[in-house]
## 1
Amino acid sequence: MLDYEKEAAIYDASRGGEARAEAATEAVLALIPARTGRLLDLGCGTGTVTRRLAAARPGLRVTGVDRARAMIRRSAALVPGAILRADCRQLPFPDATFDAVTSVWLLHLLADPADRRAVLTEVARVLRPGGTYVTTVDKARSHNVGSDIDAVLASRTRPPAADAPDIITAHATEAGLIPAGEGRFVGVGQGRSPRRTITDLGRGWFSTLPPGAPETAHFAELLSRLPDQDRPRADPVFRLRAYRKPE
């Protein structure tokens, strides 16, 4: 897993920045009822989505939580007084506090099923009856856009998708939540070029291969032969799932 204490400084610049945050916010809000009063943004990171959620609707009160101190410093500057440092597996809120909970690019980080179950259990606990949970799912698959880069990497050893839709739905069902809709949005500015992919592959992204492994060097060599080394390919399309807590 990435070290998000170190990643905070470059997170937005390397992942689409404000354009991506705007697309994500619009798609998330499309799945949240207009009457929503209090919203909890789990794994809020640098706060770019959190800030937009807070500004999107009059009267919407947004709280963001994250575990990484470096991320919290950035998000607290964007949304003063609304950010807390907390572990999403054990939230510091009473039962039935929020009308909605969101998690954008969080569940894919939780390889241990016990951690995913803990997060979904906490989501259900802090949601009010009738409340809505919206989360991204299948993040890794979203980056497969059918490009020449994807063709080169097709045979790599891939980690299992912790946030596969069927897995998340199963955890949500166990927690007492029921499916309530789907959505998607474009990861603006996140189309990868061959040269950038080589760099990311060297950091251990895209596969279970450790940086420096012979197979990693092999894929890097194949990627270096592709044309237009600095031209980004198509942007990924991220998927959302919504769940509701019965009244």
Note: The radius of gyration is 18 Å.
## 2
Amino acid sequence: MTNNALHTAATRLQDQIAAGCEANAIPGFAAGLYHAGEQVVVAHGLANVTTGAPMLQDTGFLLGSVTKVLTTTLVLQQVERGVLDLDAPVVRYLPDFALTEPGVADKILLRHLIGHTNGIDADLYFPADKGRDALKTYVHGLARTSGALFEPGEQLSYSNGGMIVAGRVLEVVTGLSFPELLARDIYRPVGMTDSSTSAEEAILRSTAIGHFLDVETMSARPTGMFTLPDTWGPAGGTPIGTVADLLAFGRTHLAGGVAPTGARILSAESTALMQQVSFDLDTPNSPPMGLGWVLYPFGETTVLAMSGASPGGVSILCVLPEHDLVFVAFGNNPAALLLQDQLLQWLLTEHLGVAIPRLITEVEQDVDLTPYAGTYRSDQLRIEVSIVDGQLEERTVYEPADASQEHIFTQFAGGAISGPPQRYVPIRPGLFAPADYPLESFDGYLRLLLVSFHDVRDGQARFRNGGGRLTRRA
């Protein structure tokens, strides 16, 4: 890419970001692009509406679930060193690892943890512990609170719990806390010089906080909680970085495991393994899963991606090996996900010339809705699915286990999760779209808004899949 092309891309990014922030009440946004040896970082707006601090090119932000790719990289480092075996049961390393259903945890392999095929039903389990034993506390708590959604390896369901258990495995086999290991084996050798592992470190430099839309004033209000508890570190609760730092990490995976510093972080074989399909639900709303990476198909191009939600913020990391490109963005309002999707599609279509075909090309008529109606559950979540006027209507209700869980989750979500019912129109048997959305809305990252149902037995679907997360028929 020439300097002129880079300048044009930067100008277009800046203009689209400014317009998107204005339209969606996003206080601040930062993005970066690496392409064919050239790199640019742009920033817009405010990092914090309370203090008026600007969003700078080197402002830090919570990585959120982008951390899961870092955690997976740490696991494969230990596999390469002969310390871990992907096909060994987790109980080999954590003898006290258990779920509420006897014997199920014994079947979970290390591979299942980082491939999101473990079935651990703990997606909303937020123990509030801090410090060195936080992950140990989390794992011990699973035996009292969390069952299994499915047999290990049977299905795919995005798993915070699996990544946290993997983080605890890393602590046990290395003798280091997860934050210490992350700093030693990722941040330093990759050259992520402005990244940190805690709010205490982040406060010493420019750091963005999240915001939510105040529906009364239609303006941004600051989050009441900066990070999730320490127990969620390996899943994305606490690590903090910058656009440039995430670009460096993405370039490491672009370059077969060699960081921009010249340090080899991962072997070429392990880097490629992360990018291979490990499980595919074969449904448009859940792209194939690698190890750590989600493998989004955009026509003939595959985008290795992971997005990360934090309290009032959204990050994204995309790596396109076929085009020698890395894209990173963060916005400090959940609506930033829409802008990130628009920017990614712009990069693909206009910057790279990639043709993005329609994900949904036709809609079937007279789909039988009866297999999908019913009650579906996962950890502290109930989804009631009924048939109304030829559509599915869903009511989602959060059922907190205790006051602590309710406080943490509602702060993370910016308010109560239980809202008005949502209508879905059939696309084909087992696949539904939210009503009143044009079909082209789902061509990009927002395909996650589609809902699918799986494993129909005796006329009833066993699982509902929304956003890559399964709930099981009650």
Note: The mean pLDDT is 96.
